[in-house]
UniProtKB/TrEMBL annotation:
PANTHER family: PROTEIN DISTAL ANTENNA. Belongs to the transposase 8 family. It comes from Microbulbifer echini. InterPro entries: Homeodomain-like_sf, RD_transcriptional_regulator, Transposase_8. This is Transposase.
Length: 96
């Protein structure tokens, strides 16, 4: 049982399994939600999110993690590029 103010976290595999109850096993959303111990609104949202991931509208968990990693890696590279650009402009003036 959760205390007030805390939210349960569900793993992506759990969500996919819950959605499969509806899409592959012909459970109703309310029955599937009850079977896995979550609210029907959660299951509706997971179905919508999974459809968006499959259509390419939404990034899945792995793609989101990769995007975050690349953005983090890209930031210092952009700063270095800007510094080198300014340095090359400076040395171009000095060499004239």
């Amino acid at each position: 049982m959760t205390t007030k103010g805390t939210r349960r976290q569900f793993k992506p595999e759990f969500k996919k399994d819950a959605v499969a109850l509806v899409s592959e096993q012909a459970y109703s959303i309310s029955k599937a939600a009850e079977a896995v111990g979550t609210a029907a609104s959660n299951l509706r949202r997971w179905i919508k999110e999974l459809k968006q991931e499959e259509s390419g509208v939404r990034l899945d968990t792995g793609e989101r993690a990769e995007l975050d990693r690349l953005q983090h890696e890209n930031k210092p590279l952009r700063m270095e590029k800007e510094i080198l650009k300014k340095a090359s402009a400076f040395f171009a003036k000095v060499m004239k």
